[in-house]
Design a protein that fits this description.
single chain, mainly alpha
Amino acid sequence: RLPEDVREFGFDNIATSQHPSPVFIENLEGTTAEIAAKALEDVPRLLGCDPRTGAEDTCVETFLPAFGKRAFRRPLTGDEATRYLAFYRKQKADFGFAVALSMLLHG
């Protein structure tokens, strides 16, 4: 569904060679929404703990370092973890746990 990356000098990961079109960005957005929706089908498995026990924030705080490491292929910095937790908490206060978790995964 997503187009192949442009190859330059035999590599497909040279950022200056990539020029994403609006259609590509739209498709990428749709793909990330699908992935987030699939991941949210089993929240306890995703988070590694059951937020229904009243430990929603604890589950997210425990999940975030592992998620960051997988999503960015490196550990989150302290500032990044703080920003993501603040984002999650704000969204949770405004929209509830399920929407906040979805936005954390999707955004």
